[in-house]
């Protein structure tokens, strides 16, 4: 429970923030207020579609993922986009989240950028969207039905064409950004970068006005850029771009190219779209930062051309003769000279010049400038086709992996824990079924990448996941994994205990338990302390759920259970005592530490 001081500081911060807004409002009075501006395109000036979408994703988090039971630990494993043979994951991945921070971060981004996208879309149909009394032109339907349904449809697309078992709404957040950035580049850039950072910082400050950080060791973990679904983000961004470009074409809007280019480049850098990476052996990761920066810079130019390039022919006029002609094209060529002669005749009829120009446009096969063409023959159309090709490549690379049928690994029933159709086990240096066969090392070596730790798999759901790495469990000692599905969940606990031998490896055991069922999942090899006492060697070995002490002398081995704390055992001519978690071996007045109980953070 928060202290009174914390609550008072949070209230004070809120008052300061609201007060600064009030002062600014008095100093700056625009000719058109925000409500008037918002109401011009949104019903009552409110982004109703965005609120419906946020409510939908929140409902998925609370009730489908069972976040209502434990908001900090939702069930996430079955709701990832595992493959086309896992329909539940494919249907829900874009709307599910791995943790509370994951959920709040994506919803903060949505609340900042989705209203801009909704404003571009508009509840009141644009005059170029056609006229009529149908549902398409009904403001409330466009607000609370059409906009959310389109968002959900894009969510399904980002799941179907996502590379790997992704989860999260971020693909949709990037789709909002891509859709909005071509119409309001600077506003979208500010909303998705500076404003989002400021908003999240403010929320954290309100939750914890005084944050205490204690410097301490942390478990080995992947770099932040290796935990991001970069392909999913790029996929959502390009889907939004394509829809935005088509809408601008339909409405005859041509944005400022400098602003578009600047916004796209800075957005790509700020959001890490240049961070192209893959997995190396063990705990190594490959970041192709040079190629990544080059790719996003080139794509920014292509996107700008697709939005604001000229409608002039993409090919030089000198190459026009190589283009295949049609009877209609031949007719236009035959009529061009008479039209040119008619232009030279003095005007005798009012408005004849305008009509003649219109006839010339029709004969030339050109469209009016206020409705530019996206034909691939034009410069802008060619760039748009390039954007479509990039989208096809980004989406297409995921299809082969999503079509793969994962071979279910063999399991030892004595060491694995079964929860419904899930199998939970602890393995060392097992083949990583998620990335083996796709790493760059496969180009030169016929070896798969390896995984060590708590593995969750399900042949029925085509799931395979290193839920807790061996390094992480070694650091924390105990970790939980939630498995389940719609309407149920089960928490599996992985617990490690062990002894660190002086000058040698650690010996340890890992236990898995769930709902009263406990299994000894793994026992390491034995190890000896790198010390000798009276020409004797002390070793510890895990054995049937216990730790056994061994003393070897002159080829003979004597064993006994490791003594409990503050107890000792006589073994092999030595006295071994457990003094507050440290084992000391003594003989003839000589006492040496040989092992200490493993401790965890």
TrEMBL record:
Q: Spell out the Pfam families in the cross-references.
A: Rhomboid
Name one molecular function that GO assigns to this entry. Answer: serine-type endopeptidase activity
- Keyword flag Hydrolase: yes
Principal localisation: membrane
| Record membrane topology | Multi-pass membrane protein
List residues of the Peptidase S54 rhomboid domain.
90-249
Q: Where are the transmembrane segments?
A: 42-64, 103-124, 144-177, 225-248, 260-280, 286-309, 383-407
Q: Which GO BP terms, alphabetically?
A: proteolysis
Q: Does the record's keyword annotation contain Membrane?
A: yes
Q: Which residues form a coiled coil?
A: none
A single cellular component GO annotation: membrane
Q: Which UniProt keywords apply?
A: Hydrolase, Membrane, Protease, Transmembrane, Transmembrane helix
Intracellular or extracellular location(s): Membrane
The name on file for this protein is: Membrane associated serine protease
Its ancestry begins with: Archaea, Methanobacteriati, Methanobacteriota, Stenosarchaea group, Halobacteria
């Amino acid at each position: 429970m928060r202290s009174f001081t914390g609550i008072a500081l949070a209230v004070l911060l809120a008052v300061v923030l609201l007060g600064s807004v009030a002062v600014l409002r008095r100093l700056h009075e625009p000719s058109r207020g925000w409500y008037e501006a918002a109401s011009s395109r949104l019903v009552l000036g409110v982004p109703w579609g965005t609120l419906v979408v946020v409510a939908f994703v929140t409902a998925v988090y609370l009730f489908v993922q069972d976040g209502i039971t434990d908001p900090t630990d939702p069930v996430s494993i079955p709701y990832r986009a595992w493959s086309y043979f896992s329909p539940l994951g494919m249907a829900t991945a874009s709307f599910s989240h791995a943790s509370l921070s994951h959920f709040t971060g994506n919803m903060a981004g949505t609340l900042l950028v989705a209203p801009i996208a909704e404003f571009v879309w508009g509840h009141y149909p644009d005059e170029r969207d056609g006229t009529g009394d149908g549902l398409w032109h009904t403001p409330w339907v466009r607000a609370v039905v059409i906009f959310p349904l389109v968002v959900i449809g894009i969510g399904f697309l980002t799941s179907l064409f996502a590379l790997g078992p992704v989860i999260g709404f971020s693909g949709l957040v990037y789709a909002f950004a891509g859709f909005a950035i071509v119409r309001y580049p600077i506003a979208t850039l500010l909303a998705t970068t500076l404003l989002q950072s400021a908003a999240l910082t403010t929320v954290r400050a309100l939750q914890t006005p005084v944050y205490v950080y204690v410097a301490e060791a942390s478990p080995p973990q992947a770099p932040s850029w290796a935990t991001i679904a970069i392909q999913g983000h790029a996929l959502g961004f390009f889907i939004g771009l394509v829809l935005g470009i088509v809408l601008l074409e339909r409405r005859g809007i041509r944005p400022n190219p400098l602003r578009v280019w600047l916004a796209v480049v800075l957005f790509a850098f700020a959001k890490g779209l240049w961070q192209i990476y893959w997995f190396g052996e063990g705990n190594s990761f490959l970041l192709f930062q040079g190629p990544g920066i080059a790719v996003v810079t080139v794509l920014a130019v292509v996107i700008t051309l697709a939005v604001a390039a000229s409608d002039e022919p993409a090919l030089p006029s000198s190459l026009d003769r190589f283009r295949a002609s049609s009877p209609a094209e031949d007719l236009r060529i035959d009529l061009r000279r008479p039209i040119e002669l008619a232009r030279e005749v003095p005007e005798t009829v009012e408005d004849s010049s305008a009509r003649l120009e219109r006839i010339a446009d029709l004969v030339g096969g050109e469209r009016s400038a206020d409705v530019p063409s996206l034909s691939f023959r034009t410069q802008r159309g060619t760039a748009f086709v390039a954007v479509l090709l990039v989208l096809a490549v980004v989406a297409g690379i995921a299809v082969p992996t999503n079509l793969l049928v994962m071979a279910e690994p063999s399991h030892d029933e004595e060491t694995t824990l079964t929860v419904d159709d899930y199998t939970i086990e602890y393995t060392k240096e097992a083949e990583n079924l998620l990335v083996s066969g796709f790493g760059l090392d496969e180009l030169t070596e016929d070896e798969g990448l390896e995984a060590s730790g708590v593995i969750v798999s399900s042949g029925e759901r085509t799931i395979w996941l290193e839920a807790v790495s061996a390094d992480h469990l070694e650091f924390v000692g105990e970790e939980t994994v939630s498995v389940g599905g719609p309407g149920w969940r089960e928490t599996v606990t992985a617990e490690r205990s062990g002894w660190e031998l002086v000058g040698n490896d650690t010996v340890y055991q890992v236990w898995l338990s769930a709902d009263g069922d406990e299994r000894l999942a793994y026992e390491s090899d034995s190890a000896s302390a790198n010390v000798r006492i009276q020409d004797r060697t002390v070793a510890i070995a895990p054995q049937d759920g216990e730790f056994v002490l061994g003393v070897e002398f002159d080829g003979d081995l004597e064993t006994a259970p490791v003594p409990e704390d503050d107890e000792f055992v006589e073994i092999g001519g030595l006295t071994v005592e457990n003094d507050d978690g440290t084992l000391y071996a003594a003989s003839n007045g000589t006492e040496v530490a040989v092992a200490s109980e493993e401790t965890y953070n």
